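Bumping with the actual sequence this time:
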Amino acid sequence: MDEFDQLNPLKVERFKFRNLAGTMLQGYLYPLPSGKSNKVIILGHGFSAHSGMMAPLIPLFHKIGYNVFLFDFNTHGKSKGRKTSIGYHEADDIASAMLEMGRIYGDKVRIAYAGHSMGGAAFFYIPEKLRNDRPEAVEWIEKHLDGKIVLDSTYDVTSVRFIS
């Protein structure tokens, strides 16, 4: 039994979306049973893991009024990709997940984020990674990010650099 099987009674929408670099990612949206919220929390897993590792948190975030979106970072779980940067390029994945929630929930969406290890470190890279290449994405994210961010067991991103 995997993490998703434990959540069997919950409604899930499985779909694929592309990150900003064009890599196909697998996502799982768990809307609130009431369906009456424009708040979404995106959960980012750690290195060498997959989105199912974050699945036990879904009921907690439902209780406090959030729709929950989990996704597999590139090269992890059911997402495509050929290499990981353990955070730097994964910032594209988080930004793309946020933009995808905007596509689904519209311009009134309020986004929160919780990331573990690599999923936390990657969040720090979003402005650096996107400000020059995709300033409109950074502007949209800044407008819709609710200011609720949890970064668990992350590492010092200033000491890690990867060359693609």
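The tokens above came from a reply further down the thread. The chain has one domain: 10-156.
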